[in-house]
From TrEMBL:
Molecular function via GO: hydrolase activity
Tree of life domain: Bacteria
Name of a matching Pfam family: NUDIX
Record PANTHER family: NUDIX HYDROLASE DOMAIN-CONTAINING PROTEIN, UDP/ADP-SUGAR PYROPHOSPHATASE
GO terms for cellular component: cytosol
Protein name: Nudix hydrolase domain-containing protein
PROSITE patterns the record matches: NUDIX, NUDIX_BOX
Co-factor requirement: Mg(2+)
GO BP term, example: ribose phosphate metabolic process
Keywords (A to Z) from UniProt: Hydrolase
TM stretches of this protein: none
Domain named Nudix hydrolase: residues: 29-158
Length: 168
């Protein structure tokens, strides 16, 4: 197996592995992200964001990378604030997922909140300028996933975990 460090900064490394069949796998360090299933008045709070890898706008749970020395739950709350402007209180850990285990070592930690405390302005980075936050009824979100309109694995898995735990 060939291994090559293709990117390195003060807080991130990306290695590419190629096996004997030419299959490419990425290893990212750190490799964790956190997302938030947020509920207000029986509506989910989601985001739309242009994703260059698939060249389209994707519907997702608010979330993103975990900073060095940051707990996953705090990262989920921070990302909820940055991407939607929502400040939340208590958040419950639902589980962890590996959204693309055949290509990457990324792990996403999923949280749930209905403890909406305050609305503020979004705090988007330049690269996040395309993010739009919106509310949608729970059952409509499930229909959009069922019909293949929305394809994001973190969104589908997060909603499934929340449904299985009786939260939505």
């Amino acid at each position: 197996m060939k291994k090559e460090l293709v990117y390195q900064s003060k807080d991130k490394e990306i290695e590419v592995f190629e096996d004997e069949f030419g299959k490419i796998t990425l290893k990212e360090i750190p490799h964790e992200a956190a997302v938030m299933v947020a509920l207000e008045n029986n509506s989910l709070i989601l985001i739309s964001q242009f994703r260059p890898a698939v060249e389209e706008i994707i519907i997702q749970l608010p979330g993103g990378g975990i900073n060095v020395n940051e707990e996953p739950g705090e990262a989920a709350k921070r990302e909820l604030l940055e991407e939607t402007g929502i400040v939340c209180g208590d958040a419950m850990f639902l589980g962890s997922i590996q959204p693309s285990a055949c290509y990457s070592n990324c792990v996403t930690h999923v949280y749930f909140t209905k403890d909406i405390l305050e609305y503020r302005s979004q705090k988007l980075e330049k690269k996040e300028a395309s993010i739009q936050a919106f509310h949608i009824p729970i059952e409509r979100a499930f229909r959009n996933i069922e019909q293949g309109i929305w394809k994001d694995s973190e969104l589908a898995h997060g909603l499934l975990l929340a449904r299985l735990k009786g939260l939505i």
